[in-house]
Specification:
heterodimer, A: alpha/beta, Alpha-Beta Plaits, Pectate Lyase C-like, 2 domains, 6-stranded mixed beta sheet, 5-stranded mixed beta sheet, 3 helices, 15 strands, elongated, B: alpha/beta, 13 helices, 8 strands
Chain lengths: 217, 268
């Protein structure tokens, strides 16, 4: 038996969508040129879908496709194209992806910065992270760790830990062994004057309606 | 290649100088060419403990400031031919030491010695920084007591951030030496136990030196305690140095000595 001349395989490929805020080709060209300058590696035969939402069926799609191609973008499909667009799509050989809401990269949440500290943090040392802070070691009494995001200590926390120092209420502090002098989330702090025997073992500290909750895990 | 070891603690009075003298002597007794340097400029003590205070003509500061050469300042030990002392100056202060000067002296010493033991002053200021800056290994001397443990923790942090090796991205090898250990007081809950200290500092234990009358006697006589091989402290230092050199020796003097019948009757 010979193999079929054609076989179909399903798969998904991430596809960039190009959206336009206006119909003016000169303005679009200027913007494309700027973006290409920013990321020349990205604009190298980049397959993409064109979002036709703001355009009118009377607009010259062929010129737009040509313009895109000259800036290293290869339109292979369109989104949000009404029935009036169909003749142009057929002529240019573009697929119609229908009416799908396109996510623009501006709406994607920026990945949080994570600082990983390998080793122990000794008395008198201070470690700060603008995002999350992960300590692979212990934090000695008299040491201080601060993070704009969460703090995780894979070891004993004996010093001070301040999470959400820029006001992040949802920040958490986690550690494998808890014997802290002070913990704080978004400015709410708690001191542990008496050695907290109750808090031995792994602990997560969260802020809930202005109260610091210390939970064993 | 010579190895630079710093004896440090942060806190004063925990036994750095006694340890420096004992460790250097024990290394020399094992045949290694050893020099011990007193970094405690202005409060020099090492020469007393080593029993060579009346033979100091030139000192470490003179050599650092190129007022004398090393040969003139090095003092040969009374008993051991392969042990030398580089004493501190009593009339100067710690600012007399500079990174460049100390480096030059250490480099010169490295040509002839196997081990360079640096006796650090207490504190975390300039003098202590000078003593630890060029260290490859550190013996952290700690008493079983919370303030001493806290200060040791602090000095380890400085060692791993401000020494040259740390600046170059490496780590200084740390050893924990617990001194003035009294098992009876530990049993009564008056002192931290070895396990407590190990847990807080997370540094490999090199040895435990029991609190001993032999230490005070040795200091006052100017004979390092390892020469007193009958004493518990002398033996404990000997063990520690053997371990440092890679021998596998069990830790001793951790438990209360069982008193014999006569001792119980007559006390002692």
């Amino acid at each position: 038996m010979t193999a079929a001349a054609v076989s179909l395989k399903a798969g998904s490929v991430a596809l960039t969508t190009l959206s336009f805020s206006q119909r003016d080709l000169t303005a679009i060209e200027a913007e494309l040129a700027r973006k290409q300058q920013e990321a020349p590696a990205l604009f190298c035969r980049l397959p993409c879908a064109l979002d036709l939402e703001p355009l009118q069926p009377g607009d010259d799609l062929a010129s737009l496709v040509e313009l895109c191609q000259s800036y290293g973008v290869l339109p292979i499909a369109v989104r949000n194209a009404g029935p009036d667009w169909q003749p142009q799509l057929q002529a240019l050989g573009l697929a119609d992806l229908g009416r799908q809401p396109a996510k623009t990269s501006h709406h994607q949440t920026k990945a949080r910065q994570v600082k990983i500290h390998r080793g122990n943090i000794r008395s008198g040392q201070q470690v700060f992270s603008d995002g999350d802070l992960i300590v692979l070691g212990m934090v000695s009494a008299g040491a201080e760790i601060l993070a704009a995001g969460d703090i995780h200590v894979y070891g004993t926390l004996r010093g001070r830990a301040l999470a959400g120092v820029k006001g992040e209420q949802n920040a958490v502090i986690g550690c494998q062994q808890f014997d802290a002098e002070l913990v704080a989330i978004a400015g709410q702090y708690r001191l542990f004057d008496e050695a907290p025997k109750q808090a031995e073992g792994a602990v997560v500290v969260t802020l809930d309606a202005g109260n610091l909750n210390i939970t064993h895990v | 290649m010579a190895k630079v070891i710093v004896i440090t603690s942060g806190k004063g009075g925990v036994g750095k100088t006694t340890t420096s003298a004992a460790v250097a002597t024990a290394l020399a007794l094992r045949g290694h060419r050893t020099v011990v340097i007193d970094f405690d400029v202005g409060l020099r003590n090492l020469d007393l403990v080593m029993g060579c205070e009346r033979r100091v003509v030139y000192d470490f500061v003179n050599v650092v400031q190129q007022e004398a050469n090393l040969k003139q300042a090095l003092i040969k030990d009374k008993k051991l031919d392969n042990l030398f002392i580089l004493p501190a100056s009593q009339t100067r202060d710690k600012d007399a030491l500079t990174i460049d000067g100390v480096e030059r002296v250490l480099n010169e010493l490295k040509e002839t010695f196997d081990y360079i033991v640096c006796d650090s002053p207490a504190g975390i200021e300039h003098g202590a920084h000078m003593a630890l800056y060029f260290a490859e290994e550190a013996i952290v001397v700690t008493n079983p007591e919370v303030s001493s443990v806290r200060d040791s923790d602090r000095i380890i942090g400085i060692l791993q951030s401000k020494s040259r090796i740390a600046e170059q991205g490496g780590t200084v090898k740390e050893h924990l030496l617990l001194t003035r250990y009294n098992p009876e007081r530990v049993a009564r809950g008056e002192m931290l136990s070895v396990t407590d200290v190990e847990e807080i500092l997370a540094v490999p234990l090199l040895g435990v030196i029991p609190e001993s009358e032999a230490v005070l006697k040795a200091s006052n006589q100017g004979v390092p305690v390892v020469h007193d091989s009958d004493s518990d402290a002398g033996q404990a230092y000997e063990d520690a140095v053997a371990r440092y050199l890679g021998e596998d020796r069990p830790h001793r003097f951790l438990e209360r000595q069982k008193k014999g019948f006569l001792q119980r009757v007559f006390g002692g």
